[in-house]
Amino acid sequence: MFDYSNSFISKHEIDNIIPNILLADNMLNCKEGPGSDFLGWLDYPNRLEQKEIQKVKDAALKIQGDSEILIIIGIGGSYLGSKAVISALTHSFYNEITTEQRKAPKIYFAGQNISPTYLKHLLDISENKDISINVISKSGTTTEPAIAFRFFRELLLKKYGKEEASKRIYVTTDAKQGALKKMAENEGYTSFVIPDDVGGRYSVHTPVGLLPIAAAGIDIDSFLQGAKDAIVEFNKKDITNPCYQYAAVRNILYNKGNLIEILVSYEPGLYYISEWWKQLFGESEGKDNKGIFPASVNFSTDLHSLGQIIQEGKRNLFETILNIENLEIDLSIPSDEYDLDGLNYLQGKGMNYVNEQACKGTLFAHLDGKVPNLMINLPDLSPYSIGKMIYFFEKACALSGYLLGVNPFDQPGVESYKKNMFGLLQKPGFEEIGEALLKR
Ligand code: PA5
After folding, report:
1. Which of 41, 73, 75, 390 to mutate to test the pocket of ligand 1 (most atoms within 8 A of CB)?
2. Which helix (H) or strand (E) holds 136?
3. Within this chain, domains 2-33+224-404 and 43-218 share the same CATH topology
4. Is pLDDT at 139 greater than 90 in this prediction?
5. Per 3-state DSSP, what percentage of the chain is helix, strand, and coil (rounded to 5)?
6. CA-CA distance, 107 to 216, in Å (whole number)?
7. Domain residues of the chain, as ranges?
8. What's the sign of the alpha-carbon dihedral 103, 104, 108, 109?
9. CA triplet 54, 56, 62: central angle to 5 degrees?
10. Is the separation of the CB atoms in 174 and 142 below 8 Å?
11. H-helix or E-strand containing 162?
12. What is the ipTM of this complex?
């Protein structure tokens, strides 16, 4: 699954780091490291009860039956995982194909920004459609989704009245506390629980990810099975464990000055997998003035832009290719009688073959440019493989964070902008901060 033969790392460097990686894994398993209150994701797929899965499936079925559009409202870990999985596993033009082809509602995301232009446009296209909402927030108090939810709740109340609106609002939030929890109780919304011990970016296998993914018609049993198998496979206590390898190699490269990791994919459908991955690693590791900066590119598109700086810019980066071994769809390149474009040498060849040669050619070029290259191989794009891959990244990230000496489960830096924003907005309780900022 994980290949680091092009990382420019010698065997003895791996041998040297093995004791540290074993220690990091022990910190995870014995729940002895920083952030150990947030390790619920480690075995969550095994603990998830069948009746909760059935509740998710029932809700998804109801949404499919009565809604043309599903709006997912959330930000960060409360939206990126489901967006990533849905984008990777559905039609590239999911919202544009017919309902018969899709067999599921169109899906749009809101509350992941504060742009009135985006929200107004989304409200415009939702107005005359049958809609349901899944609002997701662990804290239940995050400003961006709270604003979007106000607008969509208002729209639903106007369209359907109180009783029907409350049947079309699904809430995913904390089990006991928070504004959303209270609202769900008061209004009788169907609600799902984000466990206390699972942080936002580690929550894709919980109802945070499961409800939107199931509503999109994706098989959540296979998705969860992938994660359950990953729990067993990535629990090996030696360096053949791919999570150990990825965490170890990243740490070695970081200590040699490779401060930027670029996740590379050749499939546009993986764009949001990269976005989710960037959040997972960036928010988990970037603290205490440490951390690899996670970036991403989509090739061959970005070979015509960022390819230049990767090939010849400052040598402080490395690449991790997310490679899909078997793709379901292929197109054979047509022949042309006159061959004016000179492409007949490729006639009859599959586009996947051409894409693979682009990948190999780029790999050789970037190795010549002294860019360490890692590769993660997925057998296919299926719910099972994606469910497994997500767990792989989560575990590797936790290990990598402990190797780096940080708490991979908190995000204290995220609070800084919130405090300033609240101060500037004169939120009660933040007036002093606001005044100090206005003086600045
Ligand atoms: O990973 C995280 O914990 C964060 O990205 C959160 O998911 C994000 O800030 C949204 O928080 P909440 O779900 O409380 O609205």
Report:
1. 75
2. strand 131-137
3. yes
4. no
5. 55, 15, 30
6. 8
7. 2-33+224-404, 43-218
8. negative
9. 100
10. no
11. helix 143-167
12. 0.98
Does the CB atom of residue 206 touch ligand 1 within 6 A? no
3-class DSSP assignment, residue 68: coil
Please give the CATH number for the structural domain made up of 43-218. 3.40.50.10490
Q: What is the arrangement of strands in the sheet containing 373-380, beginning at the earlier edge strand?
A: 2-6, 373-380, 317-326, 260-265, 293-298
Does the global pTM surpass 0.90?
A: yes
- CB–CB of 89/161 below 8 Å? no
Looking at the domain 2-33+224-404, which fold is it?
Rossmann fold (3.40.50)
Is-contact 374 367, C-beta < 8 A? no
Q: Where are the strands (E) in 161-209, listed by range? A: 169-174, 190-194
Radius of gyration in angstroms for the set of CA atoms belonging to the chain, rounded to a whole number? 23
- Distant-in-sequence contacts of 174-182, Cβ < 8 A, 24+ apart: 174/138, 174/139, 174/140, 177/140, 178/137, 178/138, 178/139, 178/140, 178/141, 179/140, 179/141, 179/146, 180/135, 180/137, 180/140, 181/140, 182/140
Cβ of residue 411 lying under 6 Å from some atom of ligand 1: yes
pLDDT classification of 178: cutoffs 50, 70, 90 = confident
Q: Which of 283, 285, 319, 394 is catalytic?
A: 283
Calpha distance 215→2 (Å, rounded): 32
